[in-house]
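Technical note accompanying the year-one report. For the benefit of new consortium partners, we illustrate the data format agreed upon in the data management plan: each record pairs a sequence with a structure-token string. No post-processing was applied to the example shown here.
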Amino acid sequence: VSNRKPGWYSISEVNAAQIFWTKTYDSSFMQRYSQNKLLADQRLYQINPIDDSNIEFIAAILNSTIFSLFIELGGRVNLGDGALDTTVDEVKDHILTINPSKISKSQKSNIIAAFNKIIDREIGSINDESKKRDRKMLDSRVLSSMGLDPKKYLDPLYSGLIELVTDRLSLPKMRKKVAKAKIDYSIQQIKEQVEKEILPDGLQRFPEAFTDKIQKKNLSEISVPARPLRIGSHFFGKYEILDDNDKKVYEADGIDMAVYIICSYKPDEYILQIPKSPKAIMKAVQNYQIYIKELYLKLANRALSASTDYKIAERLALEILRENGYMGNFDLD
């Protein structure tokens, strides 16, 4: 600001930004980018990269569909009509992104060039975006930079995210359409019927069903008690694993390993085998989270159609998961 008056400050003095995080999402995903520094308030958060030389590349990555998938999995539904909300802490702790230092200069240039083709147009719903040529170009180049073949992964990426968004938005809509007349079933009868229809064979076992076969030399073993486990306090990336008496039984290197241990608990097993590879652990946890979240929505939708009470439906869905061996603490809404 020129000709400053008392109490006025320049843009640089108040830490303005060029990239802005969107806090809440419906069916579209967008992180705003400006070539000039601006200020934001309320529903937008300013993003200030450590290295400004990567700022346009970071904006491109944050607007890719693979990143939108990370938002969908890491956010939480706590607003009306299925809106997805993200806080600063959730972004830091649960939402993944790409490390610019791992991407070559030519790949960065290609990604930025594709990003510039969509930067001035309106961003639509994920369903509409998945059909646009410029969107596919950007996403293909981002996937390639991650070592993923777009011909193999692009269509599943779109279909998976569309399904997750559709499920998220459909549950609150069903709540509004539920008829006032209630079906003459007890809560227990509804629960048994829903479980029989949606989960006749029980839950897939974790981690066996969510990891590739790993040789024993690539596994480490830890001893655990025959009691349920939970995550305790954490400090500098280390997470305590506690039993139900609040006794520390292990210290995990990172949240993914902590979740892996918690979800692996079985009453009759005292030794857990854990992959030595952090990538293998992260992949197993992410696959399991997607599976549980999708299954929870199916259970809740079916219970809602029978009970006409969304609170009962959500409670029954979680009870069914817990009674079938789900030990995690994912945000399922």
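Partners are asked to follow this layout when depositing records. The two ends are 45 Å apart (CA to CA).
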